[in-house]
Amino acid sequence: MHLTRRSAGTLAIAVTLAAVSLTACSSEPASQADGRLLVATTVAPLTSITSAVAGNKARVEGIVPEGTNSHTFEPSPQVAQLLSKADLVFINGLKLEDPTKDLAERNIKDGARIVEVGTDVLPESEYIYDFSFPKKDGKPNPHLWTDPTYAKKYATVIAGALAKADPKNAAYYKKNAAAFNKQADALDAALRSDQVSVPRRVLLTYHDAYAYFSKTYGWTVIGAVQPKNFEDPAPQEIARIIDQVKAEKVPTIFGSEVFPSSVLSEIGKATGARYEDSLRDDDLPGAPGEAVHSWLGLMRYDYQTMIKGLGGKSPALDKLTITPANPDEAVYPQ
Fold this sequence. Notes:
signal; 2 domains; 47% helix; Rossmann fold; 11% strand; alpha/beta
């Protein structure tokens, strides 16, 4: 076959482009190569809820490593690559992950969406500003997921966003969200049953993660040791907390798995209160792939810990089934 210089050049360009295209395809995430959605998420509880709803129809990849302070987390440049390929990016919102949100907005591909799940489910009139989140700073408490009633709303929003991005599997996502919400309802019922055994439902925590939970379930948060800058509190504030713990006769004060605190230990010694340092808010128990490594496992553990720490018993929570309806195949950075 005779080729003119123009046609030969055109053929060479076509061959080169085809080679580049094949190379690019071979480096695409498995989720895109097999037609599934690629979904990026931030904190582990949100990743867990998303995975429960997405099932095997999407690849879910978390961004914030477990055990990391999500309020101060700065995503690495490698995260931009994930965000540039994702079809959906789920963040909690409510000003929790602003650096990740900014990076997503700069790198997101055409047609992809960023969904601020917490911001979507919480009207501004219901924002809670408190110890670690003063209103003057404009950042409400973002920890909705410690309240099962809001976790259910998360699942519903996530299912709707997945269905919009992948309409052929809309019924599947809706069914998975219903299954998740059924388990959240069982957790809610077990919590309400067991918390009756607690003489006084008062919480002094290090990290202020239970404001919405407390409002829903009738607990009282008397304080959070960690101030808004996530450093240890000033000596005068420590003295005030010691006086309050003594006055309230709080039997147990709760630390955080993510925020080890010598301050809480000292408050415990000064007041006679027991210091329980294993409470978690976004660090899932167990290892990825285990049933306890889930939003449901996380919240059951925290509720058991709080109830028992304050003199109650948790038989309903102890019996609660936490095996997920779908295997959790999400990627959790460690």
